[in-house]
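Human: For the file, kindly provide a plain-text protein record giving the amino acid sequence and the backbone structure tokens, at your earliest convenience.
Assistant:
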Amino acid sequence: MVEFGARPCLRTDNGWTPAHFAAESGKLSVLRTLHSLHAPIDATDIHGDSPRRIAEIYGHKDCVKFLETAEVECRDHRLAAALEGNPLDEVDEDWEAKRSEILKSQLSDKNKHLSANQDKHSSRPVFIQRSCQAQIRKPLHPSYVREQRKTK
């Protein structure tokens, strides 16, 4: 199919490449062919799963072993091509645009959810625990607050 113009970098709506499908079904010969064509076999989908991770999930150990080394070779080839100034056909422009829309939508939904929960718990006292990495804000349980008020 590649001989007739198919692009092995094209993705589905959830970001799967042909390598994801080959890894899911345990088709080592297809993964080898895609790798020989310099297809981006280390690409991740919308959930961050690479073909190697998909092969791990489905228990295709031979594919996982191959993809461990092939991913490194794929990154090395990409770096060498960039240093030489040779552009690679690895980007599905339509999917990248859709991906950014999905990520923006997810971020917006998350912010709405956080602000709704913040309003819900804003009248409750908050205990702030300091750690070396970040501040963790934990709402106190109402029974604990009542006990504290009784002791004062």
